[in-house]
């Protein structure tokens, strides 16, 4: 088997080393190509999030207020209670994500058409689930969210009480 090698400083071409055995300081050409390909693949994977947003213009009412101040106030109040599904920690009114812009436009369009905020909220919950709201209702699925903090506070109080009793005696 014949393997090609790249010469590096310190390589002695007149040595008695067989062609298959690299001399000290010599790497096979294939390993350099593999490391170069690996670097290109890593660079492409790191650049992928930059290509995630589309080049489409934002939705009509994503960044435009309604003409009627009362309806715009209703829309803003509703948007403050809806979670951005991309950012997951921001309301759609605060998020710069494209999906949040689409949801803002949807809310404003429906408010302008005369739908109530409750109807819009219910339709978004039907589409995206309870997670889209910041105040999930108490039910069997969300019970741990509501009860676990109270249970942990109770355990902490019980442990602190026991610790303070030991210190007194």
Can you tell me about this structure?
With 169 residues, the protein is mainly alpha-helical. The protein has five helices and no strands. The chain has three domains: 1-52, no CATH class; 69-132, Orthogonal Bundle (Helicase, Ruva Protein, domain 3), CATH 1.10.8; 138-169. It has helices spanning 29-47, 69-79, 98-113, 117-128, 143-168. Helix 2 (69-79) crosses helix 3.
Based on secondary structure, the structural category is: mainly alpha
Beta-sheet strand percentage?
Answer: under 5%
Give the total of beta strands: 0
Instruction: Look up the CATH topology of the largest domain.
Output: Helicase, Ruva Protein, domain 3
Largest sheet: none
Number of helices: 5
What is the level 1 CATH name of the largest domain?
Answer: Mainly Alpha
Distance between the termini: 83 Å
The mean pLDDT is 79
Principal-axis shape equals: flat
Q: Number of folding domains? A: 3
**Poorly predicted parts:** none
CATH homologous superfamily of the largest domain?
Cytochrome C biogenesis protein
- Under the CATH scheme, the architecture of the largest domain is Orthogonal Bundle
| Rg, nearest Å | 31 Å
List the secondary-structure elements in sequence, H or E: HHHHH
Q: What would a concise description of this structure say?
A:
By secondary structure, the protein is mostly helical.
Highlighted features:
169 residues; mainly alpha; Helicase, Ruva Protein, domain 3; 3 domains; 5 helices; 50% helix; 0% strand; flat
């Amino acid at each position: 088997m014949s393997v090609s090698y790249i010469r590096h400083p310190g390589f002695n071409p007149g040595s008695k080393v067989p062609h298959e055995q690299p001399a000290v300081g010599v790497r096979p050409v294939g390993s350099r190509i593999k490391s170069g390909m690996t670097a290109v693949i890593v660079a492409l994977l790191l650049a992928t999030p930059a290509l995630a947003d589309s080049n489409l213009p934002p939705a009509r009412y994503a960044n435009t207020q309604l003409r009627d101040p009362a309806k715009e106030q209703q829309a803003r109040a509703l948007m403050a209670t809806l979670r951005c599904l991309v950012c997951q920690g921001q309301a759609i009114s605060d998020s710069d994500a494209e999906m949040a812009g689409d949801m803002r436009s949807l809310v404003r369009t429906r408010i302008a058409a005369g739908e109530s905020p409750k109807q819009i909220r219910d339709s978004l919950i039907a589409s995206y689930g309870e997670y889209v709201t910041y105040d999930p209702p108490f039910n069997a699925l969300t019970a741990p969210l509501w009860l676990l903090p109270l249970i942990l506070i109770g355990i902490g109080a019980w442990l602190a009480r026991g610790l303070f009793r030991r210190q007194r005696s």
